[in-house]
Write a structure and sequence with these properties.
CATH architecture of the largest domain: 3-Layer(aba) Sandwich
Order of helices and strands: HHHEHEHHEHEHHEHEEEHEHHEHHHEHH
Number of helices: 18
CATH superfamily of the largest domain: P-loop containing nucleotide triphosphate hydrolases
Radius of gyration: 26 Å
CATH topology of the largest domain: Rossmann fold
Strand order of the largest sheet: 2-5-8-1-9
Bound molecules: adenosine-5'-triphosphate
Number of domains: 3
Largest sheet: 5 strands, parallel
Distance between the termini: 41 Å
Structural class: alpha/beta
Number of strands: 11
Strand content: 5-15%
Helix content: 40-55%
CATH class of the largest domain: Alpha Beta
Low-confidence stretches: 171-178, 181-189
Shape: flat
Amino acid sequence: MATFSPREIVSELDRYIIGQHEAKRAVAIALRNRWRRQQLPPDLREEVMPKNILMIGPTGVGKTEISRRLAKLAGAPFIKVEATKFTEVGYVGRDVEQIIRDLVEAAIALTREQMRQGVQARAHLNAEERVLDALVGKTASPATRDSFRQKLRNGELDDKEIEIQVADNGGPLGGFEIPGVPGANIGVLNINDMIQRAMGGVRTKTVKTTVRESYKILINDESDKLLDQDEVIRRALASAENDGIVFIDEIDKIASREGGLGAGVSREGVQRDLLPLVEGTTVATKYGPVKTDHILFIASGAFHVSKPSDLLPELQGRLPIRVELRALEKDDFRRILTETEASLIKQYIALMATEGVELEFTDGAIDRLAEIAVELNANVENIGARRLQTVMERVLDDISFNAPDRSGTKVVIDARYVEQHVGDLSRNTDLSRYIL
Ligand SMILES: Nc1ncnc2c1ncn2[C@@H]1O[C@H](COP(=O)(O)OP(=O)(O)OP(=O)(O)O)[C@@H](O)[C@H]1O
C-alpha cells in the first residue's frame, strides 16, 4: 500500500473533489491508520480495528467520489453497495455476505492487474511470437519470420487482420452459482477445472482481430500464463482483508427500527445482517475464507428523515467517525467545472478537439452554467453535482451533433449561448423535470 501522509492524501483528493474538507480529512486518517497498523508487531496488529466512517450529506456532493478516489490512491479494492438492495423481496439474510465476495472479485482483478505489470516485458515478447505465428505460421523459415518481425516492430502490419487463439474464460462452464446456496459454486468450479484438465488444458477460442488490437489481448493472455494464479489469489485475499474498502450507500434508508413495508426484509433485519460484517466475521468465498475484521466500512446517507441515532446501537458504535458533507453552492459548481482534474469542461474540450473543433468557455458561460445548476437543484430536485452533467449535455447538444461538419472552426460558448440553449428550459420547471 502506498504510504501517503494524511496531508498528502487530502491534497491528492483536492485534485478531484471540491471542498468537503472534513470528509477528506477523516478518510485520510483512516487510510494512514491502516499503514500504521501494518507497522505494528503481529499480536498488537490484530487488535487494532479500523475506525469506520459515517458520511452524512445530501446526494451528489462527493461522498462516493471521495471514497472511490481514496481507494484508487491506495491501490485498495473497493466496492459500493446500496443498503436498500437488501430490503427487497427475494433477499435472504446471508446475501449481505455477497458484498465481501464482490470485494474479493475486485481484489483479484486489481491484484492481477498489478502483477501483470511485473511480467509485462516477458509477456510482450511472447505475444510477439504468437502474432508472428498467426502471420507466417509456425513452420516459416527463420529469415521470413525475422523480416516479418521487423515489419511488425515498425508498425507496418498494425492494421492487418489475423486470427488468434486465446483462453476462453466465459461460456457455459464458467462458474455458475446454485440458487439459494451462496458460495456453492465452489464445487462447480472444481468440476470445471477437472473437465478442463481431462480435456487437456485450458479451453480456447478463436478471435479475429487486427495486429494492433491482438497485442492487448495476447499480452493479457500471456501475462496470465506467466503469473502464478495461486499467488494472485493469495495476495488478493490478503489485500481484501487488509486494504479493502466497502462503501454502503443509503444507510439512512434502513435506519428506522420498525419493520419494513410490504414483504421485503425489514430494515432492522438488514442492519442485523450487516452487523457481523462490520464487527468482524469470516465469510466463505470460492477462493477461500475472508476475515472482515480489518476491512474499512464507509457508510453514507442523507439522513433527512431518520437520524444516525435511529441505527441499531451496535451499528452506531461501529461507525464512530461522523462527518458531514455540505450541500454544494454556486461557487462550488464553478470550481467543479473548471478546477478539477478531468472536469466536465476539460472533457468536452478534449472530445471536440478530436473532431477538429476548438471549444472555448468564457467566464460568463461558466458562471451562468453554475447558476442554472443551482436554480434547477432548488426548483426541481437537488441532485448535487450530477446536475452539471445534464445541463452541460444539453448546452453542448448542438455542437456535439454537428461537430464533424465544423472541423477546423472555433466555437466560443459565452453566457448568451448558455442562456439561449438552457435558459428558458431551466425556468420551465415542468419541462426541466424531463430534460435537465
Ligand atoms: N465536491 C465535489 N467536487 C467535485 N465533483 C463532485 C463533488 N461532489 C460530487 N461530484 C461529482 O458528482 C458526481 C456524483 O457524486 P458522488 O457519487 O460522490 O455522490 P454522493 O455524494 O455519493 O451521492 P449518493 O449518495 O447519491 O451516491 C460524481 O461524478 C462526482 O465527481
